[in-house]
Fold this protein.
Amino acid sequence: MKRFVTAALCFGFIIACSVSAAYSAELKIGVVDVFKALNESDQGKKAKIELEALIKSKQTVLEERGKTLEKLKADIEKQSALISADARKAKQDDFERQMRDYQRIASDSQAEVKKKENELTGEILKELREIILKVSKDGNYTLVLEKAQALYALDSIDVTDSVIKAYDATKTKTTK
């Protein structure tokens, strides 16, 4: 519904601009694929690598815990006939406690990864918006839309590559 309203408003704006453009300056429209810009920019690639490293480290910890739990469960099953009911209950309680710890660690890891992803992409998206404004103004665009919001757009009006180049250029300047 939100996309429909946005598309309808954009369409109305385009029509209004078209009418007024007939009487004034040239109408110039562009589209930007923000997702592509995020993933293909140098900073986006670095963020992805950093995020993948974090995910891998969390997975390694979880896999080790999972193997420990499997071993503990197998030991309980093997020894259940040989040990007393109290000892079996103690081992089962220990297993359940470790299982809860494992689930908590998995949940915490997932939340940490999501938080890190939001931090990394949030900053990049903020900077990309500034670059999109600059590219739009420099290119004298009347209107620039998010490509995902456009039902159809010619490749010739896609300014995503220009945005990526401009963004990478500004980041190269600031790191030197």
Observations:
- The mean pLDDT is 86.
- The beta strands are 29-32, 143-146.
